[in-house]
Amino acid sequence: MSKFPEPPGVEALRQIAAETLELPAGTPLARIYFSAGPYPSHWNRFRHVGPTAARWDHHLPGSSDEPTEQDRAVLYCAPEVDTCAAEVYQATRRIDRIRNAPALAVFALHAPVTLLDLRGAFATRLGTSTAIHSGPRSRARAWARQLYEAYPDVQGFQYGSSMNGHAPAIVLNERAKGAVPKKPQFHRALNDDMLVDVLQQIALRLSYGLR
Fold first, then answer.
1. Do 46 and 75 form a contact (C-beta atoms < 8 A)?
2. CA 166 → CA 20, 78, 154, distances in Å?
3. φ and ψ at 65, to 5 degrees?
4. From CA 41, how far away is CA 76, in angstroms rounded?
5. Torsion sign over Cα 183, 184, 190, 195
């Protein structure tokens, strides 16, 4: 049996008790986003266009291969800045402080958030494995769609960063919009001199380049 099969269907998933964790109000989360490029965003803006190539987009596929605007939305973040950088720049393994105007934000949750926890044995009970964090992204998106539909009370997923030692990473869905505050605790462009030392340390730890 494959360690990372196709998802079994929404009804089959509903028969498996959800394993969740709650992030309390006040939990700090970090996010690196791009204010320019193909999908320009803002630090607290959920992306309604999808699915893109991102692993956990739960958007419904359109009639063509192009992402479409829809009610479903995602916001990717993590408890640690290292994980954000590892995930965002995994394709090039180079932290580019310029291209597409990246920025770093740290914010505290305005309200509790309930996440489906995919980092532990729950993934095995679902019929997959931790390969869900590193296997084909198109298959992971199929899982994301079915998990979103099977567990209507969850506001996102906690998953393991395959680029940062399985450290926790988070994708919030549109059900969590009310938990994201209007103002961040910290917000700077990545090319701000204030971030140079921090990004150098992260790049050194990950063996990433830095521009």
1. yes
2. 18, 12, 21
3. -80, -5
4. 12
5. positive
Q: What's residue 39's pLDDT?
A: 85
Query: Nearest 5°: CA angle at 6, between 146 and 151?
Result: 20
CB 78 within 8 A of CB 201: no
Q: How many structural domains is the chain composed of? A: 1
The answer to whether residue 5 is domain-embedded is no
Alpha-helical regions (H) of 77-195: 81-88, 122-125, 137-150
The CA radius of gyration of the chain, in Å to the nearest whole number, is: 17
Summarised one tens digit per residue, pLDDT across range 27-79 is 999 999 999 988 899 999 999 999 999 999 999 998 777 899 999 999 999 99
What spatial distance separates the first Cα and last Cα of the chain, rounded to whole Å? Answer: 43
Q: Which domain holds residue 180?
A: 10-210
Residues 71-108 pLDDT 10s? 999 999 999 999 999 999 999 999 999 999 999 999 99
Check if the beta carbon of residue 196 is closer than 8 Å to that of residue 93: no
Q: Is residue 22 part of a domain?
A: yes
Distance from C-alpha of 188 to C-alpha of 186, rounded to nearest angstrom = 7
Q: Is the pTM of this model over 0.90?
A: yes
